[in-house]
Amino acid sequence: MNIVILGPGAIGSLYAYHLDQAGHSVSVWGSRHDQYHEFSLDNQSAISLVNRSLSHLEQCELLIITLKAWQVETAITPLLDALANDTIILFLHNGMGCVDLVAEQLQGHPILLGTSTHGALKRDRHHIEHTGRGQTLIGAWNQQGERCQFVSDVMHHAFAECGWTNSIQSALWQKLAINCAINPLTALHRCRNGDLGTPHFETELSAIISEVHQVMQAERIDLPLAALTETVQTVLKATAANFSSMQQDIEHQRKSEIEFITGYVLKIAKHHHIEVPNNQRLYCAIKDIESSWSNHE
Length: 297
Ligand code: KPL
Hints:
Blueprint: E1 2-6, H1 10-21, E2 25-29, E3 36-41, E4 47-50, H2 54-58, E5 62-65, H3 72-76, E6 88-92, H4 98-102, E7 111-116, E8 119-124, E9 127-132, E10 136-140, H5 143-146, H6 150-158, E11 162-164, H7 168-189, H8 202-218, H9 225-238, H10 245-251, H11 262-271, H12 277-292
Parallel strand pairs: 1-2, 1-5, 3-9, 5-6, 6-7, 10-11
Antiparallel strand pairs: 3-4, 7-10, 8-9
Helix pairs in contact: 7-8, 7-9, 7-10, 7-12, 8-9, 11-12
Keywords: NADP, Oxidoreductase, Pantothenate biosynthesis
Domain Ketopantoate reductase N-terminal: 3-142
GO biological process, one term: pantothenate biosynthetic process
């Protein structure tokens, strides 16, 4: 397939590498204006992918968006005119609510949403590390997307486990609950994911998870609280040595994804008239840190 990766950061480059090696025609669209994105994955030899090619965009059959959630709207808008009407667009990022912001502009395109549990780290501009082998789940966001189940086969063939789900909203909400529990707390306490497994955080963690669970129930996402808590604990253990993406963003004074993680929960909670004081407090604390930076937009 002709594939363009919009946002070749750590995760984007990881997918780009494997899809390229599987024989697809892959290019990237990054914020830098270099002609090529050259990088290596772990100890494998380096590859060079075309960057920001308009003709690649025009021929693109699958656009995979691996930007930070808050970057998506601004980045995709100027590219839309170049895309064919039937280019499949796959949103693959942390958080929820992004697609709603651009849905009107994307009318006609098959739209897919995905969630991934892979861990990847950008050591520097030319070196990517695959720090945790995970899975990718993909599902349709619109009717046109329902005909694109083959995309999960393409990705499964190129890379590790990738599956199709008819309940992508449930998968995204579970990932959102994981991110609501782990990301703001690790950012505020400047700690690794595994540190949240200590008794000190037990009460706070379960309060956060139970609030998100109430909102999920109101959204008719059917999952017992015990199962959701278990899922968060499993991820905490599996990623114990990692710093969460929000911890890293806050540490480096980069805008975080709080708006599309905890912020999304607050928005949906408000819609259902549900109180979520613990998530509200975390949201405000992260926003306060962001607005204290001198480079704050
Ligand atoms: O998705 C993550 C993130 O850091 O954003 C988790 C699952 C919390 C792993 O660190």
